[in-house]
Structure to design on (995 residues):
């Protein structure tokens, strides 16, 4: 089974490292720490690659939707365009306005990026031995949500620290929007937790084991939660139609108006890292995580990690499609939709899922 | 137990290290060609009239309060959600656990309806 | 089995449900019918009252693993609270007539606050105590500032809130210290831990978290025990600060005059009675459970606080020209008299009876006085003592009733106030050790005679104003009559109430 290949390789490496440690008399805790460092390096490389890919995709998708070709010049079919842009950002001058709060101005984007990356720690990449998730935290979902809402702090600090009206207004709007939609997001997640009976992302994945039909997306009583999650997560990643915080026609470019160079780069990186983690969580919550659609068939020969990535990328492409298709909402529509539409829907979702779970649908019971 | 959260701490530290290294590299290779006009806060091309640190409208504050209420509610929901399946069903308490949370959510929903009717969800 | 516990909470649950019902009713009824939810609030109080009465007949029990207690004492306090709530609602109808927004919320908040107070009377767990405390305070802050357009009301609410937040914080420190030293949040368990002789000895028997943590950190055990011995009084003092704030004890009273003056008058009446009832219920519970293991010196501390509270309240009251402010200081002084009862209650059950009798009397005479203040303020458009000038000539009956309330507040027979003071001072004298407190109390009663009778003097010998009494809102009149009957009835026929109290305690 190819699904276990990754696990086997990691196990071999781990056993080898432990033996080596024992041989040299190094306490096993250092092996753990090394494993964590390896996991972190894996995640950061993955995130950077995914950001490059996602930006490229974004340009291509928008190009096709607008009957253009998108980037074509740099490299074959424009593939090197985004790495070049990354280099460009790195070499740009860093302008800090004279009136800005210089410390806050720096901390904002860095913090934003750090918490976005930290969320990856609990993602189960594959069956069993999971590269990044060295231990299975039993509060997985909560931790991801907590960290992703901490990102707001980075936005607020950056927007406030810029001492620019557009920045501050953008940051305020971002915070108001994201805390509103976070309520809806949490209500959707509560439904999945009810179904799985655990907060651990691995357990939530395992709950959807078996076949395609066991995925939460195909369990009818999860549909209200699914709808809720799709809308709220789009709003959480601040993409059109929910991109009020950086609406360029109103706010120049929102909370990162006064940023340039690598600090802007961190907002940018954090943004895409956040988008990606939301897609991953969506995959795990509703699309069965790393599991192949038809276990026991030929699909098993694709590693789980690839399945996870493929599903997450599919979600990302769909959000891009939505982004380049729909118009932007107005700020009042946006806020009222969250409180008057999604939160009541969240209560309905909890009721529906709760009834289904309490009546023993979807397996389980004692 | 504390070790379980080790990776979280390491990811946060690692993130900061990455950020510092990246900013350091950028510092070394980027130009530093500033002059006064460049450092003025951007305000549609005019010289900014006032600092940006203004008072904000009350709606944001109300939204924050509402958020606090529902976020705390969610904090109560999660432990319940985890054990709901085990507590429900004919061998255990049947629909009682759901009904109990229903009462709690019902009161909260009343709160939402209250805020709605009082116009606190209006954004204009 | 899981359901039986909940019946203990029937009064609080029904009261909370009533509050929610009032809130919802206010949302759906049209503006013209806005008195409907308010009336519902008043009538609905019968339900919790019924449940309290039913629980009262049961044997004392504590539920939720000892976190909540039902006994005769808490039952008596709960009935007092419900009666206060009812009378205050009656007082409020007319006062709120000009209110543009939030008519129903006022009553809902009042009921929520009352729920918190009822919880406090039965609370036997530090966390429940704190929660009840906050439930009372938060509703009261809002109620104090309810007249949004009135700057005095805003000022009052802000001061009340700032003091209250600080007091809650201090009390929370005390609670966390108690938890750290006692190893439990239930007050019974904390007492059990210190059952041996004195804190230090008990700590040696079974160290709690704090101690064991210190020992593990390498601090010698002797020092740890000494530290615990030092920290216990500190914890008790910190909790006392929180309680002292709630009942407006003197060093922590500074919020009271401003809050009382600025708050809507019915709320002033409410604040001067209800939090005191709840606060004293809690003080008594802590005292009865924790004395003398934890609180050997607490009565001495309270005795000194009682002395300065009485003197402070009475001496400041003399200088006031605003009647609400004067009554605020007078209520501080009354807290001082009640504290005498608490001091004595530790060793003498007479003190306990005295507190309840005094609280019943205080409820009637103070609410009655506020009812008259409301009536006069409604017609004279002012709340100064000078507005009472010549009341005897314009409204002789009103002046006479006011005189009775003032006499009762002073403690002159044949009124309820006399009976209360008789009980409390009698208990103090009977205890021997605290007889001097009775002397202090009597001196203070003499001082209070001056400023109470000053109002009487203004009413009878002052020049009557232009205005005559034209408006007599029914609710306020009803309250005045009920309070008059209570004040006189209790004074003339003390046997009934005494029998009832001996039954319940």
């Amino acid at each position: 089974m190819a699904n276990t290949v990754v696990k086997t390789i990691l196990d071999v490496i781990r056993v080898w490292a432990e033996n080596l440690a024992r041989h040299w008399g190094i306490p096993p805790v250092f092996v753990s720490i090394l494993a964590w460092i390896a996991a972190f390096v894996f995640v950061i490389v993955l995130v950077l690659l995914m950001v490059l890919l996602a930006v490229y995709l974004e340009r291509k998708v928008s190009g096709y939707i607008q009957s253009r070709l998108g980037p074509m010049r740099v490299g074959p079919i424009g593939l090197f365009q985004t790495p070049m842009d990354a280099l460009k950002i790195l070499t740009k001058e860093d302008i800090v306005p004279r009136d800005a709060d210089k410390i806050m101005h720096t901390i904002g984007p860095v913090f934003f990026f750090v918490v976005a990356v930290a969320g990856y720690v609990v993602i189960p990449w594959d069956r069993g031995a999971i590269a990044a998730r060295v231990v299975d935290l039993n509060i997985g979902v909560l931790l991801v949500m907590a960290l992703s809402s901490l990102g707001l702090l980075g936005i607020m600090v950056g927007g406030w620290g810029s001492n620019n009206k557009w920045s501050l207004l953008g940051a305020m709007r971002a915070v108001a929007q994201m805390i509103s939609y976070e309520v809806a997001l949490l209500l959707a997640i509560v439904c999945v937790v009810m179904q799985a009976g655990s907060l651990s992302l691995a357990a939530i994945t395992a709950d959807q084991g078996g076949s395609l039909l066991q995925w939460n997306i195909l369990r009818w009583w999860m549909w209200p939660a699914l709808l809720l999650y799709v809308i709220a997560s789009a709003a959480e990643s601040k993409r059109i139609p929910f991109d009020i915080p950086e609406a360029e026609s109103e706010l120049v470019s929102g909370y990162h108006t006064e940023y340039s160079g690598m600090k802007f780069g961190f907002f940018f990186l954090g943004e895409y890292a956040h988008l990606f983690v939301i897609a991953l969580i969506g995959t795990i919550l509703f699309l069965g995580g790393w599991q192949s659609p038809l276990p026991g068939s030929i699909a098993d020969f694709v590693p789980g990690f690839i399945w996870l990535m493929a599903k997450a990328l599919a979600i990302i492409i769909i959000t891009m499609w939505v982004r380049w298709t729909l118009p932007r909402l107005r700020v009042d529509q946006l806020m009222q939709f969250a409180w008057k539409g999604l939160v009541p829907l969240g209560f309905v979702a909890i009721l529906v899922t709760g009834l289904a779970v309490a009546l023993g649908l979807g397996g389980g019971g004692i | 137990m504390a070790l379980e959260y080790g990776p979280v701490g390491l990811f946060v530290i690692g993130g900061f290290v990455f950020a510092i290294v990246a900013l350091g590299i950028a510092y070394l290779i980027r130009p530093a060609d500033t002059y006064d006009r460049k450092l003025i806060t951007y305000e549609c091309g005019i010289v900014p009239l006032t600092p940006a640190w203004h008072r904000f409208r009350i709606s944001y504050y109300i939204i924050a309060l509402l958020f606090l209420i529902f976020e705390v509610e969610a904090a109560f929901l999660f432990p319940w959600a985890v054990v709901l399946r085990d507590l429900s069903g004919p061998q255990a308490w049947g629909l009682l656990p759901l009904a109990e949370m229903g009462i709690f959510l019902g009161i909260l929903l009343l709160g939402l309806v209250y805020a709605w009717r009082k116009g606190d969800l209006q954004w204009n | 089995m899981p359901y039986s516990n909940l019946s203990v909470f029937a009064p609080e649950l029904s009261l909370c449900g009533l509050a929610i019902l009032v809130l919802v009713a206010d949302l759906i009824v049209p503006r013209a019918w806005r008195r409907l939810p308010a009336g519902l609030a008043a009538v609905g109080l019968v339900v919790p009252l019924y449940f309290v009465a039913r629980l009262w007949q049961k044997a004392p029990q504590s539920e939720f693993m000892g976190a909540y207690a039902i006994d005769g004492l808490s039952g008596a306090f709960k009935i007092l609270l419900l009666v206060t709530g009812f009378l205050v609602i009656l007082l409020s109808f007319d006062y709120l007539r000009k209110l543009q927004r939030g008519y129903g919320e006022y009553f809902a908040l009042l009921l929520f606050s009352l729920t918190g107070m009822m919880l406090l009377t039965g609370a036997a767990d530090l966390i429940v105590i704190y929660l009840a405390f906050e439930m009372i305070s938060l509703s009261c802050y809002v109620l104090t500032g309810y007249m949004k357009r009135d700057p005095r009301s805003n000022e009052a609410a802000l001061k009340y809130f700032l003091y209250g937040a600080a007091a809650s914080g201090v009390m929370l420190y005390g609670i966390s210290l108690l938890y750290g030293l006692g190893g439990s949040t239930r007050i019974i368990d904390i007492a059990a831990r210190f059952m041996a002789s004195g804190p230090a000895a008990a700590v040696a028997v079974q160290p709690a978290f704090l101690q064991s943590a210190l020992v593990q950190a390498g601090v010698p055990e002797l020092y740890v025990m000494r530290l615990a011995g030092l920290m216990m009084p500190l914890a008790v003092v910190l909790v006392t600060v929180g309680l002292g704030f709630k009942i407006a004890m003197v060093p922590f009273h500074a919020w009271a005059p401003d809050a009382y003056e600025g708050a809507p008058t019915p709320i002033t009446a409410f604040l001067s009675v209800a939090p005191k009832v709840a606060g004293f219920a809690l003080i008594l519970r802590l005292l009865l459970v924790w004395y003398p293991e934890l609180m050997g010196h607490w009565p001495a501390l309270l005795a000194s606080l009682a002395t300065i509270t009485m003197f402070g309240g009475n001496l400041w009251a003399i200088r006031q020209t605003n009647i609400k402010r004067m009554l605020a200081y007078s209520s501080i002084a009354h807290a001082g008299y009640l504290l005498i009862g608490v001091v004595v209650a530790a060793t003498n059950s007479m003190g306990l009876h005295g507190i309840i009798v005094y609280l019943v009397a205080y409820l009637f005479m103070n609410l009655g006085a506020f009812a008259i203040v409301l009536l006069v303020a409604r017609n004279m458009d002012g709340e100064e003592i000078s507005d009472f000038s010549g009341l005897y000539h314009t409204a002789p009956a009103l002046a006479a009733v006011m005189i009775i309330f003032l006499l009762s507040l002073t403690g002159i027979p044949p009124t309820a106030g006399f009976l209360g003071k008789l009980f409390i001072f009698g208990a103090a004298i009977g205890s021997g050790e605290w007889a001097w407190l009775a002397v202090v109390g009597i001196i203070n009663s003499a001082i209070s005679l001056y400023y109470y009778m000053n109002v009487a003097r203004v009413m009878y010998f002052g020049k009557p104003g232009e205005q005559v009494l034209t408006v007599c809102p029914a609710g306020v009149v009803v309250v005045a009559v009920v309070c008059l009957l209570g004040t006189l009835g209790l004074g003339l026929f003390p046997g009934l109430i005494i029998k009832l109290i001996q039954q319940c305690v």
Observations:
- The two ends of chain A are 32 Å apart (CA to CA).
